[in-house]
Amino acid sequence: MARRALPSWVASASQRIVSSGPDSFHCHSAYERHASLGVWRSFSSNPVSSPPSSSNQGPTQTQSSAPTPPPSSSNQAQTSIPTPPPPPPPPSYAATDYSSYQQTSVRRRPYNLEAKMRMKQYRREAMHRQQALAIEEEERNFQLDQSKLYQKGDPGTVQGIVKEIITVGYFMKLPDGREGLLPCMELGCTGGIPLLTRLFKVGDEITVRQQKMYDGGKDKLFAKKDST
């Protein structure tokens, strides 16, 4: 089988490679060097007596058949624009180290219902003690201001008689036979049987203004002049 004739530029390059060896840099480009290196290996294993010469063909045909060599790597390095560095990767929350959170000295106590109820009871008892102390202080220091109360003979007033003393005021019997409640707020105090007993006793008369209640309940009584 006859060997196919090589192109003129491969034949000329192969002649130079065969004569100077595979490490020669006489080729015009890396592409030509790579092609000629394969030709040199084929010639070294199966030498040809007379490879086709470029003199058989005209100079016009040689110039037209030879391809334009690509630009060299040195020219490309000079004209190439440096590429910017790639952007940093986004933060990965999966790789977050949470070990520092577990090393803190502050620890949350476990939920204990019994301890919670006991704490509520302590606070309730402390509030009751504070209220008792305030009532005791009021019992010792409270003074009734007679100038702010109705006086006997004021228009629209009646004389009520104390029938019973309770924590929040007095139950009184009125001249028309009805009963009414005089709250302790009308006297300017917070109440309490000891304090109310010190102010008025059962059977004492108090000048009050009566507001009748026709729903079956006790009448409303007012002792302050500015009460509405």
TrEMBL record:
This is S1 motif domain-containing protein. GO terms for molecular function: nucleic acid binding. Residues 42-66 have a biased composition (Low complexity). InterPro entries: NA-bd_OB-fold, S1_domain. Residues 82-92 have a biased composition (Pro residues). Residues 1-26, 42-112 are annotated as: Disordered. Residues 11-22 have a biased composition (Polar residues). Residues 155-225 form the S1 motif domain.
